[in-house]
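Record type: monomer structure entry
Structure origin: computed from sequence
Chain ID: A
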Amino acid sequence: MESPDSRYASSNEAPPKQEQQQQSSPRNSHDDGGGDYTEKSTYTRFLVSNAEAGSVIGKGGSTISDFQSQSGARIQLSRNYEFFPGTSDRIIMVSGTVNNVLKGVELILDKLLNEFCLEEGDAEPRSKVRLVVPNSSCGGIIGKGGATIKSFIEESQAGIKISPQDNSYAGISDRLVTVAGTIEEQMRAIDLILSKLSEDSYYIQSMSTPFPYAGYNPTNYGPNGGPGKFQNHRPNNNKGPGVLQDDRNSNSVTIGVADEHIGLVLGRGGRNVIEISQVSGARIKISDRDDFMSGTTDRKVTITGSQRAIRIAEDMITQKVSSATDRGE
C-alpha cells in the first residue's frame, strides 16, 4: 500500500482558470438561470480515512492532480494524522465554483466507492459521506421546524443526518452532516446542501481555515493508557508478526509481517487495515514494497496510539496472519 505522503497532503497550486471555466457538473440542478450561483466561489469539506486519503492522492500525487485537472476545483487534504476531533479520519476540502466543486466531489466519491465499498454483484451500491459544516451554518440546512432538511431528503432520496453539537473537545466549531445513499442520491443531496450553505456569508468566510483541527490527535481522547512495555514474540518461522520496537515516548511499536502475508493485513481495497484502525483506535502505517526490516523480508507495520489501542491492533493483525498460516496460505 502506498502510504499517504505529507508532501502530497495539500495541493498548493490552483487549477488553470481555463480548465475551471470549461468544467461543469453533470448533476448540478442550477445550470439554467443560475449564473450567479454557479460562478460563486465556494467549498465543501468531508472526512476520509487515511487509506482513502492515499487513494485520492495517488502515487506521487498523480490522482489528485488528475482530479483537479478534470474538475477545475482545488483539492486539499489535512496532513498525515491530522484528524477531525473524535475520529481517525482526515479532512478533504474541495473548493472552486459550485460546478467545479460538485465535479471534484463526484470524482472522489466515485473512486472511493469503487475501491472501498463496491461488492461484486451490487446493483446500486450505497455508502455514506460525512460533510464537515460549521455549527453556525447548520441551522440553514435544518430550516424552521426541520422543513429544509426534510425537503432535501425528499428531493434527493438520500438519508441526511446532522450530528449534535459536540462539547467534548475545546474549540470545536463544526458538526458532521452524514449523507447516505447511492452516488446519485448523495450528489443530489450535496448539491442542495451546498446551494444553501453558499448563501451563508460566514460559511464562505470559513473557507480560509480549511483544517482548524490540525493539532488534534484521536489517541488523546481514547481510553487512558500510558506507554507500555511490549513483549518481543517474533515466531521462529518469520511468518507472523513480531514486535521489533518499543518507543515509550511516542507510544508506537513497529512489527514485522512477512511480505507474502501483507495482503491479509491490508485486505481488499485496504478494508482490513481500515477495520483494524477503527476497532482499535490505533494509527497503522505499512512500509512501501521492498522496504523491509533489516535482514528479513518482513514489511514494517508501525502501530501508534494508546497502550490499549496498540495491543488490540497487534492482536487483530496477529489473528489475521495466524489464521492464514493455519490454513497453509
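Annotation 1: Strands lie at 41-48, 74-77, 90-97, 127-134, 159-162, 174-181, 242-243, 252-258, 283-286, 298-304.
Annotation 2: Residues 1-14, 16-35, 217-250 have pLDDT under 50 and may be disordered.
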